TrEMBL record:
Keywords: Membrane, Transmembrane, Transmembrane helix. This is DUF1499 domain-containing protein. It comes from the Bacteria. The chain crosses the membrane at residues 6-25. It comes from Actibacterium lipolyticum. Pfam families: DUF1499 (PF07386). The keyword Membrane applies.
Amino acid sequence: MSGYLVNTVAVVAVILVLASAYVRFVPTVPDRWHIDPLTAASPGQAGVLARVNGGDIVPIGYDEGSAELLARLDKIIRATPRTKHIAGSIEDGRLTYLTRSRGFGFPDFATVTVEQVDGQSFPVILSRLRFGKSDLGVNRRRVSGWLSALEQRG
């Protein structure tokens, strides 16, 4: 019986190691994730959309240009642990980032742009997971944190 238990534990451990390696090392194709958040549908359980009209989170507006707001948001996002820029530029008006979770390193993708409404600039952030059907609110908390940091910095 103990041999069976040892074999079962060993098989489970190997499966976990292989799954973790797959999640960490599967190639990222930036074009797949660098999509326009203004035309993308809200991802529902698979992520979150911060947008003034029709988003899961409604951000506040700012009296500054799109490029300036995007540059401030870029600085905040790049300071997020385990996050790296993978596509786009401020000049293009759209940026995409990859953030990995602690532990297994599950990848989440966030694409950011700015929408102009009634003379104000509103950040638009589409954040979604790559694997699974639920992120347990991780993307919502991350995006809310970015928006709070943006508000605190005026």
